Amino acid sequence: MLKEIRNPEIGGKFLFIILVLFFLGNGLTRTHQKSDFLDYYHASQRWETKENLYKFDVAAELSQKVTTWEELFLPANASLLDALQNQTATYIYPPLFSFLLIPLGKLSPEIASGIHSFINWLALLGIFYLLSKGEKFGFKPKFNYWVFVLVILTNFRYLESHIQNNQVGILLVFLVLASLLSKNDIVSGLTLALATSIKVTPAVFIVLFLYEKRIKALLWFFLGMILWNALPLLYDFDYTLTMTKEWITQVLGNALSNPLLRSWKNNQSLPSTLAKYFISGADFVNQPLYRLPFADLSLNTVKTIQLIIILIFGAPILLLLKRPDRKWELASLLFLASCLFSGISWIHSFVICIFPMYFLISHFLTYEWSKRERNTFLVIASLVLLTHRSVVGSVMENVFLMFSVLFYLNAALYILILYFSFKKNEIRN
User: Fold this and answer.
1) Are residues 247 and 266 in the same domain?
2) In terms of residue numbers, what domain contains 343?
3) What's the structural domain count of the chain?
4) pTM, entire model
């Protein structure tokens, strides 16, 4: 058996199986622990109690009762204060996602968490099944399990965080890839519509429907948005309408227009990074510890800087849209952009790097890379792992996160993919 494992092909398959089983076990053994899934779980139960999905009503009620800081800590306001800290805006997805989880909300938290974790694991296997079709992405080398092993290792930090938090990102990556790979316009449109109805960021991938001139897929996407979101309307029309309005105004509106929304240490998005650097009080707990902000700028000034940076990063995509056969380069860039420039990007959010990393590793195996290109990629991939607390300790990891190291590393990954997108590549001999 050991001789068989030493065989490179069998060894890669063996290690891949070990890694995916590790993720399965790691997820199922954490079902009793507090995770982000509990926010989804409690939100699904509010469909029965008719409570506010996002608990913004708690903040409104507390603001009416409290006129001074002293009153905030009165025993009479203890339950409201607890709800404000542990429930308000902990669920920030559209109403449909919590509606789809209603069956899980009827189970115990541990069983529901286990089922959700297993669904995520199946989605992870689904992603690798789709990636095994390398020829569909324009890559010629024979399928190799070592590519999957490298993809997992370079994304290990994000996958570990995702599984610990029992998040939904892996499922979204699977839905997006399934949509982009399908040649059936109905399947592509409806699948991307489902992903967008769960979390709004996958909507950026309609750019690829336009790029390929798949007008029917685009029409099915818009029809799918109506159909998917009609499901909770049929269940409870008034409640769905109220919560949808709440999500659009309070969650989506704030996320798009306010860099201060959850601009905490672990938030690695561009808006959060600028807020930590230039707005006093963005993270009032951690900013004093790290002598931030560098300068105290107005909110409008920070928004202007944010817009300029987004335009600088976005302009090359507009140029790339005019070039043929750049679908998967664009897909890689859109995956990264959906995380870099959204309002809230925790560590687990960067699980979307599964595809960009797969793209670059397969690109290396297909085309000639210079020593400088290889070293650049190696440094970016290594630093993601080397800035983890298991290597540098929790104190240094906190420093790196406060200064948004993951934003810079993934922005560098974005630039590297742009570089290869415009470069004339030579196929390996």
Assistant:
1) no
2) 262-429
3) 2
4) 0.92
* Separation of CA 72 from chain center: 35
- Among 224, 257, 290, the domain boundary falls at 257
Q: What distance in Å separates the CA atoms of residue 223 and residue 206, rounded to the nearest whole number?
A: 13
Q: Burial, 112: exposed, middle or buried (Cβ in 10 Å; 0-12, 13-18, 19+)?
A: buried
Residue 238 domain-assigned (yes or no): yes
User: Which candidate, 239, 428, 418, 245, places its Cα nearest to that of 320?
Assistant: 418
| Residue 82: inside a domain | no
CA dist 299 and 281 (Å) reads: 12
**Are both 218 and 93 inside the same structural domain?**
yes
If the chain, 429 residues long, is cut into consecutive pieces of 10 residues, what is the mean pLDDT of each piece?
55 93 94 91 94 70 52 53 55 94 96 97 97 84 84 96 95 98 97 96 96 97 97 96 91 67 88 94 88 93 95 96 94 97 92 97 92 96 95 96 98 97 71
Q: Are residues 227 and 304 in the same domain?
A: no
- The residue among 196, 222, 257 that closes a domain is 257
- Domain-embedded: residue 75: no
